[in-house]
Amino acid sequence: MMLSRRRAGAALLSLVAAAPAAQAQAYPTKPVRIVVPTGAGGITDIVARIVAARLTDRMGQTFLIDNKAGAGGIIGTEVVARAPADGYTLLMVFPSHPVNPALKLHLPYDTIRDFAPVTTLTTVSLVLLVPPSLPVKNVKDLIALAKRERVTFASVGSGSLAHLGAELFRSKAGIELTHVPYRSAPAAQQALMGGEVSMFFDTPITAVPLVKDGRLRALGVSTRTRSPLMPDVPTIEEAGVPGYEVLGWNGILAPAATPRPIVERLNREIRAVLDEPEVKQKLAQQGADPAPTDPESFARLIRDDVAKWADVIRSAGIQPD
């Protein structure tokens, strides 16, 4: 009798241990919602839709995009933080996710504890632009100019990546810069071309046509490697600012208690999607580079960015709009 009980207990433990793997193997059995905390049409939304379409094909269930814009991504992020941790509600994130803790004192979720990182999807650089009328040819010239006279920079709002990229540049270069926020990237570009401001950190995909037409001049890109869209433009680090790096990224998070086998299944499937030549081509057209990671590396990236941008925001005295 005792032996039978032991065998029954061992069998039960075996079934319990196998349950998560079986759950992941069956997943998904119904449509999956990817909450995008921005409006439709931006780079975050476009990347999410490219990946969701291929996940739908690969996994046999519809991956739906649900745009919930507002409050710098906080509204959509809270929806996912409060969602069931079953793999059927996911969050598309971008750099505002680690920035918001330093800008907002009362977030309705914890940026680290309330989410399970799945993978990064893409990375994108920023490019430092100036108008041709500005008497500078390179980054060192710009720094020298800022030490002699007032230099202004455009952004698309306090705490935006364009804003933080410029503040990090100011800090690393040891100069003073004056912030002039605009409502959108096109408005900032127009101000730059009109000579209202001296510099602006833009995305390569929108900067390239303006640079090719001679309406703006590119001095450097923000990442540690050059942008494939602008291979002749040096990195800002190359151009004379040691340690400078600003990396734009997109990634997928799930609610914190999502079973690990489901997180791993999603990670594998997304990696496979990002390795498809057609997907790579579509992303390249948006100026984005596929950059999948394991969940632990993505978690580390978020933690590092939280600390990095908190330091920049404190030193610059940045306040939310």
Describe the structure concisely for a colleague.
The chain is 45% helix and 17% strand. The strands form two sheets. The protein has a six-stranded mixed sheet with strand order 2-1-3-10-4-11, sandwiched between helices. Strands 7-6-8-5-9 form a five-stranded mixed sheet. The termini are far apart.
Task: Sum up the structure in keywords.
globular, five-stranded mixed β-sheet, six-stranded mixed β-sheet, about 325 residues, alpha/beta, 11 helices
Give the distance, in angstroms, between the N- and C-terminal Cα atoms.
72 Å
Elements, N to C (H/E):
HEHEHEHEEHEHEHEHEEHHEH
Radius of gyration: 22 Å
Output the number of helix runs: 11
Query: What ranges have pLDDT less than 50 throughout 5 or more consecutive residues?
Result: none
Beta percentage is: 15-25%
Helix content: 40-55%
Whole-number average pLDDT? 92
Principal-axes geometry comes out as globular
Q: Care to count the β-strands?
A: 11
User: Could you give the order of strands across the largest sheet?
Assistant: 2-1-3-10-4-11
The class by helix and strand makeup works out as: alpha/beta
- Sheet with most strands: 6 strands, mixed
